[in-house]
Amino acid sequence: MPDLGPVLLSLHLAAVTTVILLMIGVPLAYWLATTKTGLKPVVEAVTALPLVLPPTVIGFYLLILMNPSAPMGGAWVSMTGGSLSFSFAGLVFASVIYSLPFMVQPLQSAFEAVGRGPMEVAATLGASKLDAIWNVLLPQSARGILTACVLTFAHTIGEFGVVLMVGGNIPDRTRVISIAIYEHVESVEYAEAHILSAGLLIFSFVTLIGVYALNRSYRLRVS
Amino acid sequence: MSADRLSLDIALARKTFSLNVRETLVLDGVTAVFGPSGSGKTTLLRAIAGLESGAEGSICFAETVWRDSAEGNFVPAHQRAVAYVFQDARLFSHLDVRGNLDFAAKRARKAGRAPNVDGAVEAFGIQGLQDRRADSLSGGESRRVALARAVLSCPDLMLLDEPLTGLDRAARREILPFLKRLPEQSACPILYVSHDLEEVAALASRIVVMREGQVLANGPIGEVGRSLDLGPLSEGAGPASLIEVQVTRIDTDGGLMALDAGGEVLRLPAAPGTQEGDRLRLFIDARDVAIAVERPGPMSIRNILPAQVGRIVSSDTAADALVDLFFGGEMISAQITRQALSELQLETGQQVFALMKSVRLAGDFR
């Protein structure tokens, strides 16, 4: 029986990351889908950066940010008493950054597909903006929201480079599936590596089939 | 229902189009906003609804200021107590028909009225549709649901943007009676955008005529029709005229009714349910009006009136010319060939006879 620790940790990390990103992604994607300011392409580019940058670049800067001597890392230490780097919280923070486009882009596409029409109807029937977003825009974007969550979850489980740089390899705290596989291969434990790799392969394949079957129109635009 | 006033002083500039309206509209029953495509009707309606935040100037409805850009005042659409019926119905696709109606009823403005969902369902004939998904409805059905939904939001003003557009004749005939009953259902004034003169004639009592982003005329439909040739502004129907008449006598034997049109008598097949004294609107296609210089001999055309030639519009590029004819304070347009115009040597002020081959009640949509 292989060690289930990395599997549970990966699932935990992906779940927490998806929930946090959903709360950040909905307002951000709504703003991107509706704004007319010149700031939009800048924000879109920042959002898409994790898609094109090597994980080492993101990981490197995140390490610097999280260092206890840096402002953010220091603030975390004084609040919690522990270091942000090489911790589960640090992994969540890193995952939120590198999975951002996988949440925001499908959401933005979904909101743009709904368009202004239904929101205008809601307004002329007396619905405030929040009311209209909650009761019209989000229900009409349901498939896009599901797609975004599934992609974010799957991508978070699959990430390796950033996790290795920011989290290291601490059992039950930062040793997620991809790290565990790496270590098994390094130690020539091919049987264990096979179990985890095949599991991840099947999981990713089934997830993507689900996403594409769910809707063909919310694919990522950059990747 | 007393008349509400809508004071507009709106300027809105787009790349290829600008809207400039400074007008006070008296809203009583149905007021048509009429003009050709691109004349700014929909933009005006959207500005009134609060859907055009770029509109400068002021909008004031029944003592309530909705927009005053000088004071930086902009009441958002959802606080304006308007209901907007869009051209394409725009039902919520994630809800069934009942869900669409409930959405409006839950957010109804309680201006002394309470939304009555069952009543609206019955009034707009949507019993049996309530569990249907919005995207499974026919064009006519979805327009009826959209009308019911708008009524259920209990607005102080209803804005209708060409609710018959894109429907075939059968569906238009299906919707028209519901539109005619809309004022009593909604218990509020209605602004109705249309580019179809016949639709306007069938539904509205007042009219706002627009062209190129400006208001040309505004007032009771009969008055505006006398001073302004509405025909050329109408699309779809071609040049046509609109006159108001009163039923003076109904001849049950011949099945005809006699109508008083500015002192002259017209005869038409009696419409079912019409009574003596009723006021009706007639729709006369300019192609159905012929001109004779002398009173013609015995013939099949029943409606022949002495008239005076008014304005004559002809251009070298068109085969047809448009001639305005006045009789007893009313005006109708006749479309004749330029060849006929020159052979008859028609001139403004000349006495002629107008032969009306076909006259019909507005809104028959035959």
Automatic annotation (TrEMBL), chain A:
<keyword id="KW-0812">Transmembrane</keyword>
<feature type="transmembrane region" description="Helical">
    <location>
        <begin position="195"/>
        <end position="214"/>
    </location>
</feature>
<comment type="function">
    <text>Part of the binding-protein-dependent transport system for molybdenum; probably responsible for the translocation of the substrate across the membrane.</text>
</comment>
<keyword id="KW-0813">Transport</keyword>
<dbReference type="Pfam" id="PF00528">
    <property type="entry name" value="BPD_transp_1"/>
</dbReference>
<keyword id="KW-1133">Transmembrane helix</keyword>
<protein>
    <recommendedName>
        <fullName>Molybdenum transport system permease</fullName>
    </recommendedName>
</protein>
<comment type="similarity">
    <text>Belongs to the binding-protein-dependent transport system permease family. CysTW subfamily.</text>
</comment>
<feature type="transmembrane region" description="Helical">
    <location>
        <begin position="76"/>
        <end position="100"/>
    </location>
</feature>
<dbReference type="InterPro" id="IPR011867">
    <property type="entry name" value="ModB_ABC"/>
</dbReference>
<keyword id="KW-1003">Cell membrane</keyword>
<dbReference type="GO" id="GO:0005886">
    <property type="term" value="C:plasma membrane"/>
</dbReference>
<feature type="transmembrane region" description="Helical">
    <location>
        <begin position="145"/>
        <end position="166"/>
    </location>
</feature>
<dbReference type="InterPro" id="IPR035906">
    <property type="entry name" value="MetI-like_sf"/>
</dbReference>
<feature type="transmembrane region" description="Helical">
    <location>
        <begin position="45"/>
        <end position="64"/>
    </location>
</feature>
<dbReference type="GO" id="GO:0015098">
    <property type="term" value="F:molybdate ion transmembrane transporter activity"/>
</dbReference>
<keyword id="KW-0997">Cell inner membrane</keyword>
<feature type="transmembrane region" description="Helical">
    <location>
        <begin position="12"/>
        <end position="33"/>
    </location>
</feature>
<feature type="domain" description="ABC transmembrane type-1">
    <location>
        <begin position="7"/>
        <end position="213"/>
    </location>
</feature>
<keyword id="KW-0472">Membrane</keyword>
<dbReference type="InterPro" id="IPR000515">
    <property type="entry name" value="MetI-like"/>
</dbReference>
<keyword id="KW-0500">Molybdenum</keyword>
